[in-house]
Predict the 3D structure of the following.
Amino acid sequence: MIENISLSDLEKNQDLNKYFLTAKLENINESCTYYKGNFFLDSFNYYPITEDFNSFDELFVRVNKNSISHYHTQAFYKKLKDRMNKIKVFRDSCVIGSNPGNNYFSNLFHFLPRIFFENENPIKIVVHRNLSNKFRSFMEHLFSLKNIKFNYVYLDDDFYKFEDSKIPQFLNTLSSINILKSIRNIIPKKKSEFTKIYIRREDANYRNILNEADLIDKLKKNGFKVISTSQYEILDQINIFINAKIILSPYGSGLANIVFCNPGTKVYEISPEFTNVNDLNLSKRYEILCKLCNLNYHRFIADSVDVKKYNESSKKYIHEKILKESNYYKNMILKVSEIDKIIKTIQQPTDE
């Protein structure tokens, strides 16, 4: 079976240790460990398995150990051995990766920070084919600042082998925040009139507010600019959030950009009541992010409403049972009293 090697055991194993290298960002005191050699991985978990069937949970588990538990079964081990010579092979590449469903939060926090440690020039960067053009352009901009020439290698939903290639570890939340905040120092600054913003989810398949028009009407009367982050390039999104003083949004990936906000920014989240066990790991995502970034956080609870029809991407990447049972994958509706409460709360004076 596939054997997980702990970091303490790795340090003692010279045969394995030689395949690892460390890169550092001296200016912000962050480091990243790479595995370099031959390995197998899929384009969902990006969990490398060596040709000797070793794995390294402490470096390459992105979300939680449950997500990779199937790799340590006898059935998976047998399946991998049976198809080893039939797997598509890429060579001389760096697996940065990206979320197969193009989730902005995951791309920003889990995958993007890994490119900052890359200095090889030129280089082939591996991402999922579903990565948005906006995110590709943003990565291209960051590489151009380092004068690095690169080409993309695109993965589909499949299992692959990489030879003479490398893959960086997944970083913890604090390290990702530290790296993302450093972007503020290297991008062109633009003044924005968007000091109070409401973020819509009009392109999303769930967690939309069905009576949003009633809320938006009152927000506009209180000086809010209504935006959809999907309509802006990522550099522009960053500048909008740098300049914002008050942010109101349904729970969603657009809120990932609060990492770029100035300390003290007020962040108001509208979310469903998270009761399903699958929701609990996600329910405090932006509350925790606000705490780590010294932002003022408040949550409003909305009632949940079933989604009439999920799109193909949702059905492909999310289990049917979870779609049915989880409020996370439903729409929302606000009571009139809750809309009035939101307006009253955000009208409170903001420190200049």
